[in-house]
Design goal:
Elements lengths: L1 E10 L2 E11 L2 E6 L9 E8 L1 E6 L20 H12 L4 H18 L1 E8 L15 H13 L2 E8 L21 H15 L7 E2 L2 E2 L7 H10 L5 E5 L3 H11 L3 H8 L6 E5 L5 H10 L2 E4 L1 H6 L7 H6 L3 E4 L9 H16 L12 H16 L15 E4 L11 H11 L5 E6 L2 E5 L2 E2 L2 H17 L1
Parallel strand pairs: 1-4, 5-6, 6-7, 7-8, 7-9, 10-11, 11-12, 12-13
Antiparallel strand pairs: 1-2, 2-3, 4-14, 14-15, 15-16, 16-17
Helix pairs in contact: 2-3, 2-14, 12-13
Zinc ion (ZN) binds next to loops.
Length: 453
C-alpha cells in the first residue's frame, strides 16, 4: 500500500485541496480531501490523472531526425515510408527491445502512464518468422516490464502491400501474416502477456483497409471478440482515393457501413473525413486516435476537430512515430493545427471554457477507453495512473486552478512533471525515470551497433 499527499488534485468531480490518496495493488482505494500529510506519504504539488499514449510504433523513435533532409523531388508520407522500411529492415530483436525501453522511459518522463503499442514488425528481415512467432512482441513486453509502463499490446494484421490485395513489397515482408498465422501470433503473445502486471492488455490492430481485405478483416474480428481494435484510417488523401476506387466508399464511410464500430474501436488519424463521416464516427462511441506531432511531421493534414467535438466525438492522443515524445507539445499541436486551419483561437472545445482542460481531460478519458484501462480520472476503484506536476514552476506559478491546465498545455514543457505512477508503480521521481541511466546506456550501445553496420 502507498499513500500520496497532494496540495491539490484534479479529482473526477473537480479540484480538491490537501488530498490523501491511497493505492493498493495498483488501484486507488481511498481519497480524502482536506487531509494532513501522514508520515511516509509521498508529497507532491499537483496531482492529475495521467494520460495513456494510445498509438506508438516504438522502433521509429530511433530514426527521428533521419528523414528531414530534402532530396530531389517532393518528399511526402510515401517517400518517408520507404526510408522507414529501409531503416526497419536492419533492426535486430535486441535493438528493438533497447529502442522500446528508451521510448517508454521518455513517455513516462513526459507524463504518460501507459502506451498502446501498434506492433507490426513481427518477422526476420526477409519475412521468415522467428522460432518463437511472438519473439518481437515479447521484446516489447520486456521493455514494458523493465520500465513499468502500462502496456496495451496491439499486434498488427498486415497481409497486403496496398489496396486491392497487392503483394507485400520487399520492405513489408517483416510485417506480413495471413489471418491464420496472425491468430497463432496473437495467441502466443496473449499467453506471454501473462508475465506482465495485471493491468497489461492485448487487442488487435488490422493495420489499415489497404493492408487487409474485407473478408480477412471480418475473420480477424470474428476470431477476436474482445479487447481493443485499432486501425489506421484516412491518414492520407491518396489512401482515401485508393480505397474509394477499390471498395466504392471512403475509408471511414466503408468501415462504418461494414463493421460494428463501437467503443472497442480506435480509429487512428481519421484525418480526411467528410462532414457526414465526422458526425457518424462521433456517434459510434469509438475513439479518434490523434497523433498531432507525427501528423504534422508527415504532412498528413488537420483533423476536423471542432465539428467532431460538437458531435460529442471521443478522442485521445498518440505519439505514433515518436519523432518527438512530448505530452504537452502533442496537446498544443492538436489545438494549433485547428487554429491554423480555421484562422481562429480557442477552437477545439464545444461551447465555452478552458481549452487546456477540455483537451487534457478528454484525452485522458479517450486514451483510457482506447487502451482498455480503468483510468483517465482520479476516483476510487480506478487504476492509479497518476502524474504530479509542479504548479510553482515558472510556466505555471502565476495561474489559478481554472487556468492551470491551459498553462500546462500551452505554456509548459514536460519538465513540470515530477512524478508518475503507472497502475501504482512509482517509476518517475523528481522528474526522472528510476531506471533511465541503465536504459539509455543500452540504447546508446544498440544505436552505435546499428549505425556501424
Ligand atoms: Zn501509426
Amino acid at each position: 500500500m502507498a499513500v500520496i499527499h497532494a496540495k491539490q488534485a484534479l479529482l473526477a468531480e473537480g479540484w480538491a485541496s490537501n488530498v490523501r490518496l491511497t493505492i493498493a495493488e495498483g488501484v486507488i482505494t481511498a481519497i480524502e480531501p482536506d487531509a494532513s500529510p501522514g508520515a511516509g506519504d509521498v508529497a507532491v504539488d499537483t496531482l492529475l490523472p495521467a494520460l495513456g499514449n494510445l498509438h506508438s510504433h516504438a522502433f521509429q523513435r530511433a530514426m527521428a531526425g533521419m528523414t528531414e533532409f530534402r532530396q530531389a523531388g517532393r518528399d511526402s508520407f510515401w517517400t518517408w515510408r520507404e526510408l522507414m522500411y529501409r531503416f526497419m529492415d536492419r533492426l535486430t530483436p535486441e535493438q528493438i527491445e533497447a529502442i522500446a525501453a528508451q521510448v517508454y522511459v521518455e513517455m513516462l518522463e513526459a507524463g504518460y502512464a501507459s502506451v498502446g503499442e501498434f506492433h507490426y514488425v513481427h518477422h526476420q528481415p526477409g519475412g521468415a518468422p522467428y522460432d518463437n512467432i511472438a519473439e518481437l512482441s515479447e521484446r516489447i513486453f520486456a521493455a514494458a516490464s523493465q520500465t513499468g509502463i502500462g502496456l496495451t499490446h496491439l499486434p498488427v494484421l498486415y497481409s497486403y502491400g496496398g489496396a486491392r490485395q497487392t503483394e507485400l513489397n520487399a520492405g513489408q515482408r517483416r510485417f506480413g501474416n495471413d489471418v491464420d498465422r496472425f491468430q497463432r501470433l496473437v495467441e502466443r503473445a496473449a499467453a506471454a502477456l501473462g508475465n506482465l502486471p495485471g493491468d497489461a492488455r492485448i487487442g488487435i490492430a488490422p493495420h489499415s483497409l489497404r493492408a487487409t481485405s474485407p473478408a480477412d478483416l471480418a475473420r480477424a474480428l470474428a476470431e477476436n471478440g474482445q479487447g481493443p481494435v485499432h486501425i489506421h484510417i484516412a491518414e492520407q488523401p491518396r489512401e482515401v482515393q485508393e480505397i474509394e476506387a477499390w471498395l466504392g466508399a471512403r475509408p471511414v464511410e466503408w468501415l462504418l457501413d461494414h463493421q460494428e464500430v463501437d467503443d472497442r474501436w480506435c480509429l487512428i488519424h481519421a484525418t480526411h473525413m467528410t462532414d457526414a463521416e465526422t458526425r457518424n464516427m462521433a456517434a459510434t462511441g469509438a475513439v479518434a486516435g490523434l497523433c498531432p506531432i507525427t501528423e504534422a511531421n508527415l504532412g498528413d493534414g488537420p483533423f476536423n476537430g471542432p465539428d467532431y467535438a460538437r458531435a460529442g466525438g471521443r478522442f485521445g492522443i498518440g505519439s505514433d512515430s515518436n519523432v518527438n515524445i512530448s505530452l504537452t507539445e502533442e496537446l498544443r499541436t492538436l489545438e494549433y493545427s485547428q487554429r491554423l486551419r480555421d484562422t481562429g483561437r480557442n477552437v477545439l472545445i464545444p461551447g465555452e471554457g478552458s481549452v487546456g482542460a477540455f483537451l487534457y481531460t478528454s484525452a485522458a478519458q479517450g486514451g483510457a477507453q482506447a487502451l482498455a484501462r480503468a483510468s483517465g480520472a482520479i476516483a476510487p476503484g480506478k487504476l492509479a495512473d497518476l502524474v504530479a506536476i509542479d504548479s510553482r514552476s515558472a510556466a505555471l506559478c502565476a495561474l489559478s486552478r481554472d487556468h492551470l491546465l491551459d498553462g500546462l498545455v500551452f505554456a509548459a514543457k514536460d519538465n513540470v512533471v515530477s512524478d508518475v505512477w503507472s497502475a501504482g508503480r512509482h517509476v518517475v521521481r523528481g522528474g526522472h525515470h528510476v531506471g533511465r541511466d541503465a536504459v539509455f546506456e543500452t540504447y546508446r550501445a544498440a544505436m552505435e551497433e546499428l549505425v556501424s553496420v
